[in-house]
Known about the structure:
By secondary structure, this protein is of the alpha+beta class. The protein has eleven helices and 18 strands. Strands 9, 10, 13, 17 and 18 form a five-stranded mixed β-sheet that branches. Helix 2 packs antiparallel against helix 3 (about 95-110), helix 6 runs antiparallel to helix 10 (about 315-330) and helix 7 (about 245-255) packs across helix 8.
Amino acid sequence: MTDGSDTFYGGIPVFRGFGSLMDPALYSPLPDDWSIGVADIVESTKAIAAQRYKAVNMAGASVIAAVTNALDGREFPFVFGGDGASFAVSPGDLEHARKALAATATWVEESLDLVMRVALVPVAAVRANGLDVRVARFGPSPNLSYAMFSGGGLGWADAAMKRGEFAVQPASPGTQPDLSGLSCRFEEIPSARGLILSVLVVPAQGADPRAFRKVIEDVIALSERSPDAGRPVPPGGPPLRWPPQGVEYEARAARGGSLLKRRGVVLAVTLWAYVVMRFGIKVGNFVPKTYLQQVVENSDFRKYDDGLRMILDCTPELERALTQILVAAASSGIVRYGLHRQDAAMMTCFTPSVMRSDHVHFIDGARGGYASAATALKATAA
């Protein structure tokens, strides 16, 4: 297929250096005939209060896995939001994405006991309401790139979905998406510096774009130049144990046979993987040390989708410094923000093939993460 990401998204240059993400020149407007996919968990706050963080993250990541597999691995822009996800697809990929979303909504309800709402919003509808959807490609490592979104269109699409507009109805009962490659075999990652901070910063209504850009750049600069903050994934990779905490979720994401059989297969596969990783056993062209290095480099711990999202391992002192910047900016009517503090981070992985270097690892806080930060943000607007 040549009308999709092969031409538009694949042609956007990859930028390095997260500090430059607010440069408008990095962002390209989506074609008018594209569509925005949005998904989120209904009442995720209740699920998090019940300590179902892993299930909520698995649901959010399942959207990206299902759409990627439905598009046969073709590259498309997406962003993981903790309790949901957003993405963009070309007209030629729209129906594939629609079926994947419908199947995912059904799977999330039947397998995770959560309700996911999903929608596909035409970019033309966003622009008709005076907003835009622009996308950039950030390369955190030589292995892959992530999409960054600006223009206000994702936020508008999410609000429209929550109003019941552009809804994609769940597939018939028993329908299961192709979630191949979706797993969560690593254990929680405890903070090494004092706390794991979930950060969410969006522009206040009517805020001066230049003032908002400066605040975001100041926040990023403070976190990047300080030795007291950094990637929440340790240099040697996350903790790995057997059996992993995520066995049940991986079994439910698998296809074929009874759930009992799938549990057995996952236990066997994860035991083999644990032995290989624990002892650094090279298997063919697979080198565990190289794979773990890629896991660290490919961890998606900061992004921009009409607002800044970061999961930082930082000291209490740096957290106070960041809070001071955000409090001042909020009192000046420039930003709205939410912060959430916890003692660990968690990782959900999408690895279509361990032989490729572009596997992606979604990071969130392990005690509420982005969803709790969003709740704190909403409270500031009340």
